[in-house]
């Protein structure tokens, strides 16, 4: 069995990892969690297929997280939104770290509970 990691060069793995980690800028600058992966996807999509996949996956996940956050904010009126808001943020944090780690290993990671809006 061939190791898939050997097929992905280090530069692609690094850019794939950065595509995921760039979403953390959104914790400081609103909506930057979408802009980071979007910029990497637009810059690298034609030259690095692995990075294109990872950045697109990160972008779709962050758009999904943004939608889940808006739903949580609306549900605060019913008090269920407060714990849901924290759950969404924790979900974002954990799975972004997992995805970045997998990308650095050269593994094509696919986020759970993600709306695939960008094809």
Automatic annotation (TrEMBL):
Its protein name is Orotate phosphoribosyltransferase
Q: Where are the transmembrane segments?
A: 21-43, 63-91
Would you say which domain of life the source belongs to?
Bacteria
The record's annotation in Pfam families points to:
MamF_MmsF
> Which keywords label this protein?
Membrane, Transmembrane, Transmembrane helix
Q: Does the keyword Transmembrane apply?
A: yes
* InterPro entries, A to Z: MamF_MmsF
Subcellular location per UniProt equals: Membrane
Q: How does it sit in the membrane?
A: Multi-pass membrane protein
User: Where is this protein primarily located?
Assistant: membrane
């Amino acid at each position: 069995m061939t190791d898939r990691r050997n097929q992905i060069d280090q530069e692609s793995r690094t850019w794939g990892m950065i595509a995921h980690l760039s979403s953390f800028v959104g914790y400081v600058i609103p909506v930057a969690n979408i802009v980071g992966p979007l910029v990497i996807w637009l810059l690298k999509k034609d030259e690095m297929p692995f990075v294109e996949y990872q950045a697109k996956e990160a972008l779709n996940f962050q758009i999904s997280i943004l939608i889940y956050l808006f739903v949580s904010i609306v549900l605060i009126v019913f008090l269920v939104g407060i714990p849901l808001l924290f759950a969404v943020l924790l979900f974002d944090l954990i799975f972004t770290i997992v995805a970045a780690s997998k990308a650095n290993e050269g593994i094509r990671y696919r986020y759970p509970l993600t709306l695939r809006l960008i094809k």
